[in-house]
Amino acid sequence: MRQLVAGNWKMNGLGADLAELEALKPAMPGAACEVAVCPPATLLARAAWIAKGAVALGGQDCHAEAAGAFTGDVSAEMLKDAGAAYVIVGHSERRQYHGETDAQVAAKAQAAWRAGLHAIICIGESEAQRDSGQASEICHRQIEGSVPLEADGANTAIAYEPIWAIGTGKTATCDDIAAMHRHIRGCLVERLGPKSAGIRILYGGSVKPANAAEILALDDVGGALVGGASLKAQDFLAIIAAARKT
Ligand code: PGA
Description:
Largest sheet: 8 strands, parallel, barrel
Structural class: alpha/beta
Number of helices: 10
Order of helices and strands: EHEHEHEHHEHHEHEHEH
Helix content: 25-40%
CATH superfamily: Aldolase class I
Distance between the termini: 8 Å
Number of domains: 1
Strand content: 15-25%
CATH topology: TIM Barrel
Bound molecules: 2-phosphoglycolic acid
Number of strands: 8
Radius of gyration: 17 Å
Shape: globular
């Protein structure tokens, strides 16, 4: 399985920042992993024009419906039309600041597939949940609720992002990451059966050039979802270069 390194620009980026996307292009033919950049929706069409297929693009969220009276929302079909191949759904910032539930996240994943997008479904526990020993149970519950039964390796990746490690500079230890990815793999097998074997499990949370190689070398880490360190091409390229070669 080729690893997937996806950059989540979050609510960052104006037109001038697309220079960072342009700067990724020369390295793409030699990349060992799949690469995707998820800029804000406002930049997607311009990003597609710059990427010219050399770098895959993604949205950061989508509405479950294809079209309609949903002021301010963006559908999966619109993302696809603007040039996206991926969409992140259920990011903890959406769950936290927009009150998204597991059921809504599952509907968004279905919308992604309907539009022909690869869904990156995010899960992960808060610091309080980890401290009280609930991390495994929370991720299990999120998989049961957010990952529709039609998920397989061709249409879905899971991103395990412990909330306390996002944007904080705190990374989970390699032992914690390996253990949680093992647990998540077990949950996927339980829910989806053998076809779940092809689903990549990405790690996210303060991945940076200094820790990418050790994280991406771990068993059953299928790639990384990178926030802050994806904003500068130099850092993002260093993470891409750390992907497993096989
Ligand atoms: P971070 O964000 O790399 O800045 O911690 C990761 C994410 O939220 O996807």
